[in-house]
Design goal:
4-stranded antiparallel beta sheet; 4 strands; 2 helices; TT1725-like_sf; DUF503 family protein; DUF503
Length: 92
C-alpha cells in the first residue's frame, strides 16, 4: 500500500529563504532518519513563511502505512517553529 500525505505549513519566524530552508532541512532530515519514508518540499519553494511538504510511505498494509504517516505528522507537529495547516491523504 502506498500512502501520500501533503501538508501545507507555516513558518512564522522565518525572515528569509535561508532561515526557512534551515528549519525545513532539520525537519526533513529527522523524518528520513527516524521513519522509513520519502520526504520533500513540493510547493512554495520561493515563499519565506509558507511551505508544502510531501511524505510518502510504502508498506504491505494500509494500517501500517497510515501508522507510519501519522507518526510523521506527530513529529512535524512537535517542532515549535512550524505550524501544520491543511493536510491531505491519498492512497494508491
Amino acid at each position: 500500500m502506498i500512502g501520500f500525505v501533503e501538508c501545507e505549513c507555516f513558518i512564522y519566524n522565518a525572515q528569509s529563504l535561508k532561515e526557512k530552508r534551515a528549519v525545513l532541512q532539520r525537519i526533513i532530515s529527522r523524518l528520513k532518519q527516524k521513519f522509513n519514508v520519502s520526504v520533500s518540499e513540493i510547493d512554495h519553494q520561493d515563499v519565506w513563511q509558507r511551505t508544502t511538504i510531501g511524505v510518502v510511505a510504502i508498506t504491505s498494509s494500509k494500517q501500517a502505512t497510515e501508522r507510519e504517516l501519522q507518526n510523521c505528522l506527530k513529529m512535524i507537529d512537535s517542532f515549535p517553529e512550524i505550524e501544520r495547516a491543511v493536510t491531505n491523504f491519498e492512497w494508491y
